[in-house]
Design a protein that fits this description.
It is a single chain. This protein has 117 residues and is mainly beta. The chain has a single domain, classed as Immunoglobulin-like, CATH 2.60.40. The protein is 14% helix and 42% strand. The chain is built from 1 helix and 9 strands, in the order αβββββββββ. The strands form 3 sheets. Strands 2-1-4-7 form a 4-stranded mixed sheet, with no helix packed on it. Strands 3-9-8 form a 3-stranded mixed sheet, with no helix packed on it. A two-stranded antiparallel ribbon has the order 5-6. The chain is globular and about 35 Å long.
């Protein structure tokens, strides 16, 4: 028994709809690079989406600040930032809101703004 043209058309429409909402695409990764300069974190704010893995690379370009490490208290993340060496931090935001990050002395500060979309 051959499937009818209308059944095949309906199946194609459903498959295209699923593909258009990203149900078949691999989960994306949110990527950003933050430089640590004499001015602090550049940029000092990142916008992220809930439930989407994030990969944030820090590059410390100066010795003129206390930004030798970065701390994300709400994510229990603390990393040393060697001069001129990229440091990759990976995590997945689980809730929306604003979350701070700072140097170990809490003097150089930045913010994550996490939203549902």
């Amino acid at each position: 028994m051959k499937p009818s043209v209308s059944a095949l058309t309906g199946l194609i429409v459903v498959l295209l709809a699923i593909q258009s909402v990203g149900a078949w695409s691999p989960q994306q990764v949110q990527e950003a690079t933050i430089k640590v300069t004499e001015k602090g974190y550049e940029p000092n704010q990142l916008k992220l989406r809930v439930g989407v893995p994030a990969r944030v690379t820090f590059v410390r370009e100066t010795e003129a600040t206390c930004g030798t490490e970065v701390v994300f208290p709400e994510y229990d993340i603390e990393r040393k930032l060697p001069l001129d060496e990229p440091v990759v931090i990976e995590f997945t935001p689980q809730e929306s809101g604003e979350f701070g990050f700072a140097c170990g002395m809490n003097m150089v500060k930045g913010k994550l703004i996490v939203s549902e979309n």
